[in-house]
């Protein structure tokens, strides 16, 4: 197939994974990832993210369903897939007595057409640590070495399992910049993360998993739009909630009054905010401490986890 930006480099259909004791960790999931996009898998602890990524990496055979990476089955056609993918595992597990450069050279020996080691260490900001033993690296520096090793083969598809766990704020930002630059260069990236901010900043599309299933997929904006927006303000002195325009007519789904503070939730943010501001202007009053905001990914995440736990959430998918 000719490489183009609409090509699905990963296709997952009704994928299932069952562990030895019969526990079904992945319970029939579907998603696809296009060439050159960053796709994030989010979810609560034990949701099945790592179990899923391991199936994409060809480390285990699915109990059911189908997975294709670059058009191949990553488990049975490992030889066709592995040289074109890079894998950053949660635990690198290198011999700790080797230096950073020795570790990378050892790894490069297993990769056909490996990039020069200094280039890859430079990419992840470890060039100054080339002569340092792995056991002397900080946790964050080890994560960067993990990433460098995944990049040695200049992969078309990169799997990153919690790439920024243990990194400080600066290290995290540097990794985001690097991953974005790789995407801009055409690399397809699948990452798991616990940091919602990371998915919001980095992902072109994401899926939120819960209990082995995908609860929602879409762009960060689409997923965020599943939760209502919020408007908060203080009632002007001398006014009561009943003096406001009828809230239902402004598209407000529910409201809460706490002292003089009014909190509204709406799925029609522009209509509700405009209605309130026009009312305030006409009444000649100021809405003090006015705060108007769309839901964050965190609110969507918590809302979805709650919905699914309560059994009210059917899987939602947005147009790609
Ligand atoms: N080797 C195993 N044998 C049996 N059960 C397992 C095994 N590995 C994982 N599980 C179970 O499968 C479920 C999914 O685990 P998985 O590691 O895929 O979740 P995750 O979403 O990556 O979690 P986390 O965010 O905590 O890393 C969990 O309930 C876990 O206990």
CATH topology of the largest domain: Rossmann fold
- The assigned structural class equals alpha/beta
Calculate the mean pLDDT score and round it: 89
What is the alpha-carbon Rg in Å? Answer: 24 Å
CATH architecture descriptor name of the largest domain: 3-Layer(aba) Sandwich
- Stretches where pLDDT is under 50 for at least 5 consecutive residues are none
Overall geometry: elongated
Continuous helix count: 10
Describe this structure in words.
By secondary structure, the chain is α/β, with parallel strands linked by helices. It folds into 2 domains: 8-224, Rossmann fold (3-Layer(aba) Sandwich), CATH 3.40.50.300; 229-293, YebC, transcriptional regulation domain (Alpha-Beta Plaits). It has helices at 49-56, 78-81, 100-108, 117-123, 139-151, 169-184, 196-202, 220-224, 269-283, 297-309, and strands at 8-18, 24-34, 38-43, 64-69, 85-88, 157-161, 188-192, 205-210, 213-218, 229-234, 252-258, 261-266, 291-293, 316-317. A hairpin with a 2-residue loop joins β11 (252-258) and β12. The longest helix has 16 residues, at 169-184. The model has no long low-confidence stretch (mean pLDDT 89). Bound molecules: adenosine-5'-triphosphate.
Write a concise synopsis of the structure shown.
The protein is of the alpha/beta class and 320 residues long.
Describe the structure using short key phrases.
ATP hydrolysis activity, 4-stranded antiparallel sheet, 7-stranded mixed sheet, 320 residues, alpha/beta, ATP binding, antibiotic resistance, binds adenosine-5'-triphosphate, Rossmann fold, P-loop_NTPase, 2 domains, Alpha-Beta Plaits, ABC_transporter_ATP-binding
């Amino acid at each position: 197939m000719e490489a183009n930006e609409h090509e699905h480099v990963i296709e997952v259909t009704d994928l299932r994974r069952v562990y030895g004791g019969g526990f079904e960790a992945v319970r029939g999931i579907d998603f696809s990832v296009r060439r050159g996009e960053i796709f994030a898998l989010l979810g609560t602890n034990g949701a099945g993210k790592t179990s899923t990524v391991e199936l994409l990496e060809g480390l285990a055979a699915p109990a059911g369903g189908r997975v294709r990476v670059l058009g191949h089955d990553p488990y049975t056609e490992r030889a066709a897939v592995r040289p074109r993918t890079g894998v950053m595992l949660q635990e690198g597990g290198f011999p700790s007595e080797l230096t950073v450069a020795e570790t990378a050279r050892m790894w490069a020996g297993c990769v056909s057409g490996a990039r020069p080691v200094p280039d890859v260490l430079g990419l992840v900001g470890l060039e100054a640590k080339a002569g340092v033993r792995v056991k002397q690296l900080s946790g964050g520096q080890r994560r960067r070495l993990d990433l460098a090793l995944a990049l040695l083969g200049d992969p078309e598809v990169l799997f990153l399992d919690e790439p920024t766990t243990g990194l400080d704020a600066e290290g995290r930002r540097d990794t985001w910049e690097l991953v974005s630059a790789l995407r801009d260069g055409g690399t397809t990236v699948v990452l798991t993360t616990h940091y919602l901010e990371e998915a919001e900043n980095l992902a072109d599309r994401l899926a939120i998993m819960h209990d082995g299933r995908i609860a929602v997929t879409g762009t960060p904006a689409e997923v965020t739009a599943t939760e209502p927006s919020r408007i908060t303000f203080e009632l002007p002195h001398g006014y009561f909630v009943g003096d406001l325009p009828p809230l239902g007519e402004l598209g407000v789904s529910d409201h809460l009054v706490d002292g003089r503070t009014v909190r509204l939730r709406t799925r029609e943010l522009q209509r509700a905010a405009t209605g309130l501001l026009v009312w305030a202007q006409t009444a000649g009053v100021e809405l003090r401490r006015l705060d108007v905001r769309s839901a964050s990914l965190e609110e969507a995440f918590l809302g979805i986890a709650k919905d699914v736990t309560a059994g009210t959430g059917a899987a939602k998918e947005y147009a790609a």
